[in-house]
Write a structure and sequence with these properties.
10-stranded mixed sheet, 6-stranded parallel sheet, 470 residues
Length: 470
């Protein structure tokens, strides 16, 4: 990256962190802010507000050393692009929930329209030496739209969610056009090698593609660099946060609330991909199979409500309300209940305190690009008496965190057995597992992720874009 060049980060939403611990669940905003603090540049995206008519007017602000340029969208954009194509079509499909995917041409048109509007608004801000880093499934066609406007800069794309298997991807109408648009990027990054390989498989089968060399594909008559770049957290900062007054207060509150019972904690955005129903059933099975341990545990599930305009999210909330009521109705006593289910956001420093009080971190998504909650849980533990991480095999984080207790979240028996093992685990084994996990969380942190991707994006290409000889 040249000294004159800036890093321009583009994402659907721009959420500038305040830096005081107030941010709630969700790691993307923190990761992007950390990236921008190390490079001069700006963060471009949707403001989160709607306007009657799209004008392309930019709103600029600087918070915590990060400069943002945002634009308002129309209500129809929100309905068709965000609630529609992004979250009713791509999100369920990429998480293997074809049964929940809605295929509507109006959604497709809205998705194309907003990406085109983003490109038209962003293009005048781009300088010749700038490097552009586009994030996530909302903006897959953005490079194509920028190229159409004459942008020649290096443009990279990072997918934070899983890339689905070939036979899943072809359920998407116009899937070929969507993937072809990705070849307007110089580099496409995935969370894991598995997701990268699934993308390669699609290109080989649907675009008469070939692997020119490891990490370099040819398809649609063009070349594309790909790679796996597992995202991390700022581990040292999160560990320091556990010593803040608010974190200590929350930790003490949780210890008092559990009356020195073993706390099992889960923290997830309310989403069907997070395996919450399966997790509740696993905990219910644990209580049924271990009557001697019932009064020894308390499970706390924090699940902030999201995407309330999408029907599938309304339905899952109703099912979880019923499940949590059933569990407490069956196993509670007059002086004790085993389960607390909370639909609200907490500050990151408060979550650090909650994690630190837990004997078990229960992170069991059905499918996840990475899952930063697993890494935050590890970073928040007391090195002298750490808790145990129970982690889904289907989270991207499982590839890095083999010293967790890995489970199939679809099996209540496996989840229940892992909970029992975690609660009974002796301190020497807990310390050994935690030390290995924390070492990985520190080494493979957000800085390593950022630097690896930016270095790959700004490296001299071995072959010119967009065409590849041979």
């Amino acid at each position: 990256m040249s000294p004159e060049g800036r890093l321009i980060v583009v994402s659907n939403r721009v959420n500038l962190p305040s830096g005081d611990g107030e941010e709630s669940v969700g790691g993307l905003a923190m990761a992007l802010a950390a990236a921008l603090k190390a490079y001069s540049g700006l963060w471009f995206g949707w403001s989160g507000r709607t306007t009657e008519t799209f004008t392309g007017e930019l709103h600029a602000e600087t918070v915590g050393g990060v400069t943002a340029a945002t634009v308002d969208l129309e209500e129809v954009d929100l309905d068709e692009y965000y609630n529609g194509y992004a979250n009713k079509t791509l999100w369920p499909l990429f998480h293997y929930r074809i049964d929940l995917a809605a295929f509507d041409r109006a959604f497709d048109k809205g998705y194309t329209r907003v990406n085109r509007r983003f490109a038209a608004t962003l293009a005048p801000l781009i300088r010749p030496d700038d490097v552009i880093w586009v994030h996530d499934y909302h903006l897959i066609p953005l490079a194509k739209e920028l190229r159409a406007l004459g942008v020649k800069n290096r443009v990279g794309f990072f997918l934070h969610i899983p890339w689905p298997a070939h036979q899943v991807m072809i359920n998407l109408p116009r899937h070929r056009q969507l993937v072809e648009a990705m070849f307007d990027y110089d580099l496409v990054g995935f969370q894991t090698a598995e997701h990268q390989q699934a993308f390669e498989e699609y290109v080989l089968n649907e675009a008469d593609g070939e692997v020119v060399r490891p990490g370099c594909l040819k398809g649609f008559g063009r070349g594309l660099e790909t790679g796996a770049f597992p995202i991390g957290i700022d581990a040292e900062d999160f560990a320091r946060m556990t010593h803040s007054s608010r974190a200590r207060r929350m930790r003490n509150l949780m210890i008092a609330a559990t009356v020195f019972r073993h706390l099992i904690v889960g923290v997830d955005r309310l989403d069907y991909s997070k395996g919450l129903e399966e997790r509740f059933l696993g905990f219910e099975h644990f209580l049924a199979q271990n009557p001697d341990l019932r009064r020894e545990v308390l499970m706390l599930q924090i699940a902030p409500v999201s995407r309330e305009a999408v029907e599938a999210y309304q339905e899952i909330r109703g099912r979880l309300d019923a499940l949590s009521g059933r569990i407490n109705g069956e196993f509670s006593d007059v002086d004790w209940a085993p389960f607390r289910y909370v639909n609200k956001n907490y500050r990151r420093d408060e979550l650090a305190g909650i994690y630190g009080a837990a004997r078990v971190g229960l992170v069991t998504p059905l499918r996840d690009g990475m899952n930063l909650v697993a890494k935050e849980f590890v970073a928040a533990q007391n090195p002298e008496d750490p808790g145990v991480l129970v982690l889904s095999r289907f989270a991207g984080a499982a590839r890095q965190m083999g010293d967790a207790l890995l489970v199939n979240p679809n099996s209540p028996e496996e989840v229940a057995d892992a909970l029992k093992r975690a609660i009974h685990m002796e301190k020497p084994e807990r310390i050994r597992r935690w030390e290995a996990l924390y070492d990985g969380v520190q080494r493979e942190d957000v800085t390593a992720w950022r630097d690896a991707f930016v270095a790959a994006l700004t490296a001299e290409p071995e072959t010119a874009r967009p065409a590849m000889a041979g």
